[in-house]
Amino acid sequence: MQTNTIKIFDTTLRDGEQSPGASMNTEEKIQIAAQLEKLGVDIIEAGFAAASPGDFDAIDKIAQRVSNSTVCSLARAIESDIKAAGEAIAKAKMQRIHTFIATSPIHMEYKLKMKPEEVIKRAAGAVAYARTFVDDVEFSCEDAGRSDIGFMKEIADAVIEAGATTINLPDTVGFRLPFEIGVMVKEMSDYVEGRAIISVHNHNDLGLGVANSLEAIMQGARQVECTINGLGERAGNAALEEIVMALKVRSDVFKDFDTRINTKEIYPTSRLIATITGIEPQPNKAIVGKNAFAHESGIHQDGVLKHKETYEIMKPEDIGLDQSDTLVLGKHSGRAAFKDKLAKLGFTLEEDALNRAFERFKILADRKKEIYDDDIRALVTNEMTKAEQVFEIVSLQLMDCSEGVPSAAVKIKKGNDEIIDASIGGGTIDAVFKAIDRITGFTGRLDEYRVKSVSEGKDALANVTVKVSFNDEPAVIGHGLHLDTMLASARAYIGALNSYLSMAGKLKERPKKVIL
Ligand code: KIV
Ligand code: ZN
């Protein structure tokens, strides 16, 4: 029997970014896209071009960077969205526009306030317009899980006629059970056979995203949409790593199916996403959780020592987790050991970047006894995803945090100048950020502040993420890494400002944020 290669459509950068707190800046998205390409995903949904100037810019840059995966932008079935999508992906070697409109009675009546006939007309028009930009157009029946199958057949006929090559059936609210998804997919894939391929996009509200995707594959879906670490709206999406490893480990059942995924890149990809978003997979998360390959009970440990397969259905090495490599770096580690560690973690840095990362490693090693893999990942990722450094924090001094008024003095470098100023605030962080505002002349509104320790120990690095809006423009993200939480916070805030400045010109050219 012929093997069917299931297309893996990764939407970490679009649906995944819709997870509360998961916003990423342009440099971070480029870094993630490059890793997804290395992982072997077929399609990277790089964002929603019309959503904001930042989204457009990131998709455009990813389009220029990625060549082995198709680069896709989401677009509502609206001309301006499709135009933005078409322009954003124009430089990609392989391009796709993904347009959608809701097809369930509840969405059509209350959200769209449109009649079913109007929805069909709008969908076909959107696809036809998208085809003026690209040959590869995907159409999604939003809320397919609660849509009438007869209506979806009608809309499928219309959009296929207009040029759609993939029909996606999202279970937008994660409502369906596996056998129900199976029935829907079987009926739809039989119906469109030879004219288009059926894709699924399963949300995880009942914890069934992966099970639903696997059943869909059994019943005829040839593309699955998923995210790394299961990120996504609300309870998230089906996790890429779980779908791919289920297909691999249970190849006895899924013998007619495979994917292009290099499973050894799963763990490095998962760590990169966790480092950048600051959202750690739960410890017991399948495949990539901290405990996924840990054996706590004595009986299990004994079994594994005698014969691994007593309690392990897959090898950590299969997902690129090398547990035998426990080398922890410290201040006596040289450049060669550092370079070797980077290679093992999947980073290839140009000479200049390597030198800068090694310098930062040495400074850290002077103050932190043991440096773990996650410290190195955070350090290098932070270095690689920095926007141009218009402003740089030189030093920070905090005053009277106990009974008096919290105040902070900050020294900032801009070009060859060093500027110092101080401010009081409602709390220490407030004082630090206000002092930065005074020096830079930009007033930021802090929308989100998160701090996470990178590895273990009292001397762990603090990884601070901020979401800041300057001049009432769409918010930008900044990350700061330091042993001192206040310095990490100051760096994160300046990082957000540098990010804002690096795209300030583009912000004026494009409309402001659109909410999906
Ligand atoms: O969940 C959903 O319906 C979506 C669509 C936009 C594909 O994310
Ligand atoms: Zn979704």
Structural summary, described in words:
The strands form four sheets. This protein has an eight-stranded parallel barrel with strand order 2-3-4-5-6-7-8-9, surrounded by eight helices. Strands 11-12-13 form a three-stranded antiparallel sheet. It has four domains: 274 residues, Aldolase class I (TIM Barrel); 30 residues, no CATH class; 60 residues; 112 residues, Double Stranded RNA Binding Domain (2-Layer Sandwich), CATH 3.30.160.270. The C terminus is likely disordered. Strand 15 and strand 16 form a beta hairpin. The protein is built from 17 helices and 16 strands. The chain has 516 residues and is of the alpha/beta class. It is globular and about 70 Å long. It binds 3-methyl-2-oxobutanoic acid (KIV) and zinc ion (ZN). The site of 3-methyl-2-oxobutanoic acid has 8 residues, from strand 6.
